[in-house]
Design goal:
Blueprint: E1 2-8, H1 19-33, E2 39-43, E3 47-52, H2 57-64, E4 70-80, H3 83-97, E5 104-112, H4 121-135, E6 139-141, E7 148-154, E8 158-162, E9 165-170, E10 179-183, H5 189-199, E11 203-210, H6 217-231, E12 238-243, H7 245-254, H8 260-278, E13 283-285, H9 298-305, E14 312-313, H10 321-330, H11 334-337, H12 359-366, H13 371-379, E15 383-386
Parallel strand pairs: 5-6, 5-7, 10-11, 10-13, 11-12, 13-14
Antiparallel strand pairs: 1-3, 1-4, 2-3, 4-8, 4-9, 7-8, 12-15
Helix pairs in contact: 7-8, 8-9, 8-13
Length: 398
Amino acid sequence: MNRVILIKYGELTTKKGNRKLFINTLYSNILKKLKGLEVNIFKDMSRMYIEYDSLNEKEILKRIGEIFGIHSYMIAYKTNSNLNDIKKTISEVIETSFDMSLNYTFKVETKRSDKSFKNNSMECNDIFGSYILKNYSNLKVDVHAYDILVHVEIRKDFSYVYINEYKGLGGYPVGVLGKGLLMLSGGIDSPVAGYLALKRGIKLDLVYFEAIPHTSLEARNKVLELAKKLLVYGFDMKLIVVPFTKLQEEIYKNVPGNYSITIMRRMMYRIMEKLTKRFKGLAIINGESVGQVASQTLTSMKVINSVTNLPVIRPVACLDKLEIIDISKKIDTYDISILPYEDCCTVFVPKHPIINPNLEHCLEMEANFNYEELITEIINNLMVIDITSKESEYEDIL
C-alpha cells in the first residue's frame, strides 16, 4: 500500500486572505523539522501530504508532533478515486491494523471534496459500510460507540483511507506573526511563556540577564538547557546573554532595598527595548504572572512598563502556578527549572519589596546614577549564542 502522512491545518483554515502565507510558513517549518529524513511534501489549501521512507516513520511522526500549526495528522493509504480501489484499500487497512480474530464495532466517515464523484458522502458511507459488513462477520456498525472509525477522503486525483488520527499541537506556524524577544530566566514560568508564544506563531530569540559572580556558570548552563527544550518547538533561536553585574550593583548602591526589584525590572525593560530593535523583534515576552510576586502586581507592572512603548506579552499572566507547572512538565522543562542555581532576579531579592511602587519615586532614584552609560556598555558587550541541540557547541562558553 502507498502510505503518506496526511496533515490537517485546523485553525489556519480560518485565515482567509492570509491562508496562503500560513500554509507556506507551515510547509517551510515542516521541511526544516524533517531535515535529514527522506521525504517529499506536497501541499494544497486544505491538506498537506508527506511521502516518506517507512523505515523513518516513527521519527517522522515524533517530529511532526512537535510542530505548531498542525491540527491533526495521520498515516493515510493512498489509492485511486474509484469505488473498487477504495474498497480494496479499506480491507487492507483493516486487516493490517486489527486482530481479525476479535469482534469490533465500526463507523465510516466519507469526505468527498471532488464534487464530480458520482456518489455523495452519505451514499459512500452506505456503500463502504455495506462492503465491510458483507466481508467481515466480526465487524458490526455502531455510529455512536465504535472501536474503528474508517475515514475516507475522496479527492480528484487520489483518495485516502485512514483510521488512527493523532492530535497536533494546534496554534499557528512559528514565525508567521514575526519575532519577539523572550526574557528567559532559570525559573519555571518563562520557558512556559516561551512555549505559549511559539504556539501563537511568534518566532523567538531569548534574553538571559547574567550577573557573574553573583550568578554562576551553572545558572547559564541551566538556561542553555531550557533554550534547547524550546528549540524543539521553534527554529533558528539565539540566546542573548546580558552582562548585568555592574548595573545591578549600582542599583543596590543607590536604591532603597524595597524599590530595588522595581528599578531592576525597569532597567531590564530599557535593555530589552534596545535588544528588540537590534534583533528585529516586535515585542517583549516574559513569564510574569499577575500577583505571583511583588513586581507582578498591576501597579508594579504599570510602573515598570512605563519605560518602553513596545508591547509586553505575558502568556502566563492569568494562569495559576499549578497550571504553569503542568505545562512545564509537559514540555520537559520543569526538572531543569527547579535546579538550585539562582538567576539575577532571585539572588538579590529584598525581604520586603514594594508592591505598589510610585513612578515619581522611581524617577528620583534613577537620577542618582548614570544608568544610560551602563546600559550602553552592556549593549556593547553582549554574548550571542546560536542555540543547537549539540552539546559540543557550548564547550567554550561554560
